[in-house]
Amino acid sequence: MKLAARVGQVTPSITLAITAKAKAMKASGLDVCSFSAGEPDFPTPAHVVAAAQKALDEGKTRYGPAAGEPALRQAIAQKLNRDNRLPYEPEQVIVTNGGKHALYGLMMAMIEAGDEVIIPAPYWLSYPEMVVLAGGKPVIVPTTEETGYKITPEQLRSVITPRTKLLVMNSPSNPTGKVYSPDEIRAIAQVVIEADIAVVSDEIYEKILYDGAEHLSIAAVEGMFDRTLVCNGFAKAYSMTGWRVGYLAGPHALINAVATIQGHATSNVCTFAQFGAVAALEESQDCVAEMLAAFTKRRSVMLERIRALPGITCSEPEGAFYLFPNIAQLGLGSIEFCQRLLEEFQVATIPGLPFGSDANFRLSYATDLDTILRGMDRLDKFVASLQ
């Protein structure tokens, strides 16, 4: 059976592949310290689970609207108004099967053959693949540790062409943990407005901020609301990764187009899961603060250990739950580094290459302190073996 040519244009997610390998090694009896998956280790908050269970008990298990349950679309619109100063109406929100599905639906609805999509590197590894699947051309813009792994207005201006359709922004960033300051967001917005292009703002980590870092949605900048698509979800802030509930907010026409595509692709998101998401937004946010406190401690411990390693540098993340150390001085590419670390010392991490930087690797500290301490001991031994 012949496969479509588009399949050969994209690569499988290396994050999922390494996570699966680490799980297989664990299942075989090996003690693996895994820092690979971007998944909080906390249980989903009890009130969220209770709301979904109540929906089940009430028989809310049938098909629902393709764009999402009205109660959830309303709750999301209220959240965006309250937390982000974005005056969305419920009809400008679509509920999707996770934030990833929101981004994919957007690309399919917006990108045509030959359209250029600007993606600052390092980037979440699925962004370019989605653009390719939609027939577009990813335009990768390398950034450096010196600029905080952020695209500058000058860089952005230099790569915009008549074919440019969209800029992808991700703050806080996966994999770097960097956060664009409000002034940096406004400066990028000015270039976007001058060039008359659109932006998708991936804000999935907006609740996970450290040391006074401030999240400003680029959609809130004057002149940006009607040219911005805001992507978010419940996986990271509420430890709901397996629930697969995300959302996209934007202009009516674009949201309607994504809803049409979703109606033919997946129909509605799991009905009772959506009622759990309503509870996540409308009830106590103490769970978010508790998880953030734990992430803050873990970040401090892991960062201190990483920075003590010879030949490795690491900037401090301001958000999310990742470190993105630079290993250029060690003389290994990121794939060889991570493969050897997993096979020789049973520590699972993600190479930087699929994120757009072969000089780095990614670690998630969304795991317990004991695992972090044991894993850092092993990483110390591995780096020593390379000297």
Automatic annotation (TrEMBL):
CDD domains, alphabetized: AAT_like (cd00609)
Origin superkingdom: Bacteria
All copies of domain Aminotransferase class I/classII large, residue ranges: 32-378
Record key words, sorted: Aminotransferase, Pyridoxal phosphate, Transferase
Annotated Pfam families: Aminotran_1_2
GO terms of molecular function: transaminase activity
Cofactor(s) the record lists: pyridoxal 5'-phosphate
EC number: 2.6.1.-
TM ranges: none
Enzyme class: transferase
Family statement drawn from the similarity comment of this UniProt entry: Belongs to the class-I pyridoxal-phosphate-dependent aminotransferase family.
UniProt protein name: Aminotransferase
Organism: Limnothrix redekei LRLZ20PSL1
